Amino acid sequence: MPSSLPRVRSVVFVPFAGVFIRFYDSFDNKQTKSPSWVKSFRTMDVNREELLIEVEEIKKIMDLLSNLFAIRTAFIYAIEDERYTNEIAGNNGDYQDYCKLIQSELKHKCIACDRDKFKEASEKKKPLLYMCYNGLYEMFLPLFVENSLVGYLHFGQVRAEHDFKIIALKYSLYEHSKVKELEVIYNSMNVIAKEKLILISDLFQKFSEIILANKLIKLKKAQPEYYLKKYVEENLDRPIDVKSAAEFIGRSPSFVTHKFKTVYGQTFHEYLTHSRVGHSKKLLKRYSIAETFQLCGFNNRYHFSKVFKKIEGITPHEYQLGISIEI
Fold first, then answer.
1. Of the residues 41, 95, 208, 302, which has the fewest C-beta atoms closer than 10 A?
2. Does one domain contain both 235 and 171?
3. Is pLDDT above 80 for 270?
């Protein structure tokens, strides 16, 4: 394989020049289809086909951070229901032996942890440093382009300062049949203090700003159905419909009707209605029902309450009562 290759301006799915762009279902370097548990993760706001990624430049950043701190680094993207999860990994891209052994029996814990932390990080929109469900430090930093989630910067598989016996008790590692071997591997791993990991997270934040400022990740502009979702999200307080959406992207109403259903698996109206109700749930925590329905694009309070109950199974008033009880 040649040592240098032409500059890449789009996502590719072949190995080149040591760049890891991988489909994971094991811990080797093969490019294979991901398992069905990927459906548990948050779906990206855009498909990988909609991304233009400066692969070589991001690879350099991941390599730099990986070599500097001797940790696993990656840009993870295109997490989609029952499809693939892709990443561009740094030089230390392989999994720790500790993780390989853990996942031979307790993989469900890793799946649950990633699912929960992907969701939490995307909601907070800032670096999320945490201890995984098997006792190692990990960090996810969501990246947004034009308000759309396109992936996560990641570092992880870093040993904590704690003694293994404390970790094993806290995270139920004694369920593993090779817990003694786990202890030996854990004790051989390098320790990075949490205070330093916080600083590394801050550094990742700075690099994310560089990535976005230099447009190393961009959205393709050729797929109008992408803009339909953005049109809905940015106009939830207005009386929009299929016709106005069609005018927005310069296509016919029939295009919106058929294309949206084909791409996203639900009608434009269904997506609009569920988006409005989802938005209303956030607003009901701060505003009255009379104020909320107007801020969500509903014609009147009766229609809002009827739609809300159909989707959520309770009325807006009952929902607010539930919030007050929780508080």
1. 302
2. no
3. yes
